[in-house]
Amino acid sequence: MSEPADIAAMSFEQALAELEQIVARLESGQAPLEDSIRMYERGAALKAHCETRLEAARLRVEKIVMGAGGAPNAEPAEFG
Questions:
Q1: Residue 79 has what DSSP assignment?
Q2: What is the structure's pLDDT at 67?
Q3: Among 6, 23, 46, 78, which is 20 to 30 Å from 16 by CA?
Q4: C-alpha R_g of the chain
Q5: Which SS3 state, helix, strand or coil, does residue 77 take?
Q6: CA 43 to chain CA mean position, Å
Q7: DSSP class per residue in 3-71
Q8: Distance (Å, whole) CA 34 – CA 2
Q9: Given this model, what pLDDT does residue 61 score?
Q10: Predicted local distance difference test score (pLDDT) of residue 70
Q11: Using CA of residue 61, residue 19, residue 21, residue 12, what is the dihedral sign?
Q12: How far apart are CA 4 and CA 35, in angstroms?
């Protein structure tokens, strides 16, 4: 089995795709207990990475919307 990719170097899309694979494997119930625990730990790290990437993107968009002077440039973006 190949070495798992370094999570910090992953894009949001890569991390999300791997997280989806892990969830599917865990939901299948076919993995041995120790493998399930390892997958769960990696999934938790992937989830945290995705949340960090999303927050960074949200802050970038907010900065664009607010502009340099602090006044809104356009309508506020809706998230959620």
A1: -
A2: 74
A3: 78
A4: 18
A5: coil
A6: 10
A7: PPPPGGG--HHHHHHHHHHHHHHHHHT-S-HHHHHHHHHHHHHHHHHHHHHHHHHHHHHHHHHH-TTSS
A8: 18
A9: 92
A10: 65
A11: positive
A12: 13
